[in-house]
Amino acid sequence: MMKEHEVDQFVIIGRVKDSFGLKGELKVDAYLPASRWKKIQKVFFKRKNGPYVPFEVEKVRSHNRGSVVLKLKGIDIKEEAEKLVGAYIYLPRGMVPPKGKDEFYFFELEGLQVVTTSGHRLGKVTGVIEGRSYFLLEIDRGRGYIPFVKELVGDVNLEEGIVYVDDRLKELF
Length: 173
Description:
Blueprint: H1 4-7, E1 10-20, E2 25-30, H2 34-37, E3 42-46, E4 53-62, E5 67-72, H3 78-82, E6 88-92, E7 113-116, E8 121-130, E9 135-139, E10 145-147, E11 153-157, E12 162-165
Parallel strand pairs: 7-12
Antiparallel strand pairs: 1-2, 1-6, 2-5, 3-4, 3-6, 4-5, 7-8, 8-9, 9-10, 11-12
């Protein structure tokens, strides 16, 4: 049984989009680059209000842009894989593979200040939400979301604790 304080130490690394093939593989919307997934040996699945359920990773391979095909030990037929569709995939923070220079993970954005290029503060990032076509930065003021696209989001500076966004966004907040 997991202790309550350990739950906060988990980060979402993907979501099961569908089963893949007949041998129990899963198509996953990957929130980490495919190269990082290949270093992962154990993942945790969770549905809303459900417990974290551990699975050993048997194999991972790149699929389409932004997705991987994941094979778990003990999930060997399509029907078993289909039971996991819609579940989120987590890792304990300490098990997240190291990132490269000038890279970041979405969970690291939480708590950062959102500032326009002219210095106008819009609020803090309270989460990153998966939209239909792109991810959205959730801002604590509750006035909306900022699409995480290069046209609107510029530099992310983890050391300064700032996400720089296009100056046009100050009119919306």
